[in-house]
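Long-time lurker, first post. I've been practising inverse folding by hand and with some scripts of my own, and I keep getting stuck on stretches where the structure tokens seem ambiguous. Below is the full token string for one chain I'm working on. Before anyone asks, I'm not after the true native sequence, just a reasonable design that respects the backbone. If someone could post their per-position residues I'd love to compare against what I wrote down in my notebook.
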């Protein structure tokens, strides 16, 4: 059984005792992060949903330290490769069989610009994406930053989704109403909400959200930053 650890915002670690994956490792600048980037002990692969600073986060430093392979869109991969990282470029709609399992890049509707991270170094425009990850015989969907879209139905149509990590913070992404609707479209078993409470503008009522999800006959697991969950 894979273990999922939540680091706050959209940062998630998946491990199965053999391979460790990080998704959107935003730690140093993340007010909710329970650990510092230096406390990450292993990162075989880092999956990045888009180039915004709250998702790209500490990817460069972590990938250098742990010799990780970074999975990202072609545009973002090219930028990261120039920084000396080992990358695997993909594009939305494409899937690839990695030694740990299959990864499919899914659509996401969100901004595509690069963020200035303080030193004037900006990633190129890059398409935001989500990930459908088969790992430890389970399917996890990490939506990245996205609006609700009805084609989420296609993501879960042929693949039973055991866990869906969905943004609920509103303002920049789906809010709780739309994320509950997304659970219906995806046909997912369980939701783990992400991308909320990091800043005031994305504060979300997790109680109201889990009530909505349970009303749909689905499971909702609210993780505090630092909490882990075996799925
Ligand atoms: Ni974003
Ligand atoms: Mn974001």
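-- Answer (accepted) --
I ran through it position by position. Result:
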């Amino acid at each position: 059984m894979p273990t999922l650890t939540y680091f706050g915002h959209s940062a998630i670690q998946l491990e199965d005792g053999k391979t460790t994956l990080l998704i959107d490792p935003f730690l140093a600048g993340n007010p909710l992060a329970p650990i510092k980037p230096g406390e990450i002990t292993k990162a075989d692969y880092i999956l990045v949903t888009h180039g915004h600073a709250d998702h790209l986060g500490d990817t460069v430093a972590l990938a250098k330290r742990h010799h990780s392979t970074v999975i990202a869109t072609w545009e973002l991969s090219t930028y990261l490769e120039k920084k000396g990282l080992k990358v695997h470029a993909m594009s939305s709609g494409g899937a690839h069989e990695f030694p740990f399992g299959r990864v499919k890049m899914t659509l996401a509707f969100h901004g595509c610009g690069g963020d200035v991270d303080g030193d004037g170094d900006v990633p190129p425009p890059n398409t935001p994406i989500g990930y459908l990850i088969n790992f430890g015989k389970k399917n996890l969907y990490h939506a990245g930053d996205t609006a609700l879209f009805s084609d989420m139905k296609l993501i879960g149509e042929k693949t039973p989704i055991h866990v869906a990590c969905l943004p609920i913070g509103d303002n920049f992404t789906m809010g709780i109403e739309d994320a509950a609707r997304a659970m219906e479209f995806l046909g997912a078993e369980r939701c783990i909400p992400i991308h909320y409470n990091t800043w005031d503008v994305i504060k979300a009522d997790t109680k109201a959200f889990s009530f909505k999800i349970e009303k749909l006959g689905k499971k909702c697991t609210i993780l505090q930053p630092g909490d882990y969950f075996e799925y």
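A couple of notes from the structure itself: The pocket of nickel (II) ion (ligand 1) is lined by residues 50, 52, 55, 110-111, 145 (CB under 6 Å). The CA atoms of residues 164 and 192 lie 6 Å apart. Happy to go over any region you disagree with.
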